[in-house]
What does this fold into?
Amino acid sequence: MRYRLGKAGDAEYEGSRFFGDPVVPESWADEEPWPEDCWFMCQLNLGELDSEGLLPASGYLYLFVDASFDIPEIRAYYSAEEPDTIYEDCNRGFDEVEWDIHTDYPIEFGDGPEGCFAAEGRGDDVIIMSLDPQAAGIRLFEGYRSVRAVIARSALSRMDLRAVRTELS
It folds into this structure.
């Protein structure tokens, strides 16, 4: 399913978004499930996304970028709980990132540029999220035409999100 980024600063509390402050379950705000060197990339409200059965029909999927590597490494986390806490400290200390990751951009599903899509099957894999930075109109992941979070269908069926891998082109 394709998507586009909406107007900066217009993301809804429980909606899908890129950047800004994620809205997480309260228990996550108390003890982050992601490593300290990660910055928040996006949250997907799976109830908004027609994934044709590839992803759970409800809950939230969160993608973070691990900044401890020279090249982007995407980490994924899932919560079946309804988020109730805006996690304002998530992207603090990542001022070296080449884009304003502190401002939220709503994800508008259904229409969008080539290269920006979520939940697409590809053989034995599922592309959870694909981002073409240029098509999306952001200057992030400089030098890459495509940044994807990909997982094997077998790992996804077990919700073993540790198996998510990053594909760059």
